[in-house]
Amino acid sequence: MELKLPPVIVFFVFGLLMFLLNKFLPFGFFDFFGRLVLVKVLAGMAVGILTISIVQFFRTKTTVDPGKPSKTTQLVTNGLYKFSRNPMYLGMLLMLLAWGLKLGNAFNVLLASGFVFYMNRFQIIPEEKILGNKFGKEYARYVTKTRRWF
């Protein structure tokens, strides 16, 4: 697999980069009415999506280890996975967006998009190849019905 770092580590690295960008970039600050409320809404959605998607994996008794998608025993296509093929990564993205909003630096959007690029290139596409080989037509049908992120 092309996976270089576990997704949780990637998430924390991008969060740290957002913090550093906010601390050392002297411009880019923004504020608007309801910004902190939006931070809480996005963070709440992120926690909810992450929790539900992980519980779905445990209920189907398949692995949540993104480093070993070949150990997947069953394709999860119901619940949140009916709307997104990667709700765990979507939850991480929403948390990064909430963090970027809390910090209030507009340039953090670029780092959030960098997270999406990295995850697509080094995690999701390699996972999709493995799952396609393992589950064949069932996975191909799922891919045509369900979007990668949302």
The ordered H/E elements are HHHH
**Overall pLDDT score:** 93
Please give the alpha-carbon distance between the first and last residues.
24 Å
Q: What is the 3D form?
A: elongated
Low-confidence stretches: none
User: How many H/I helical runs?
Assistant: 4
Largest sheet: none
Backbone CA Rg: 17 Å
- SSE-based structural type: mainly alpha
Number of strands: 0
Instruction: Please give the share of residues in helix.
Output: 55-70%
Strand content: under 5%
What's the gist of this structure?
The protein is mainly α and 150 residues long. It is built from four helices and no strands.
Describe the overall structure.
The protein is elongated. The two termini are 24 Å apart. With 150 residues, it is an all-alpha fold. α1 runs parallel beside α3 (87-103), α1 (7-24) packs antiparallel against α4 and α3 (87-103) runs antiparallel to α4 (108-145). The protein has helices at 7-24, 35-59, 87-103, 108-145.
Key words describing this protein structure:
150 residues; mainly alpha; 4 helices
